[in-house]
From TrEMBL:
It comes from the Bacteria. This is Uncharacterized protein.
Length: 41
C-alpha cells in the first residue's frame, strides 16, 4: 500500500516538529524564569 509510508513519514515529521517546539518553549520559559529571578529585562 502507498498510504502506510506516507503516514509513517507524516508521523515522523510531526514528532520532530513537536519536539522542536517543546524544546523552544522550555528554553523560553527557563529564560523568562531566570530573568524574573535575577531582575534582568
Amino acid at each position: 500500500m502507498i498510504l502506510l509510508p506516507l503516514q509513517r513519514k507524516t508521523a515522523r515529521a510531526s514528532f520532530h516538529y513537536t519536539r522542536r517546539v517543546s524544546i523552544w518553549y522550555n528554553a523560553r520559559m527557563s529564560n523568562r524564569f531566570e530573568a524574573e529571578c535575577y531582575g534582568d529585562t
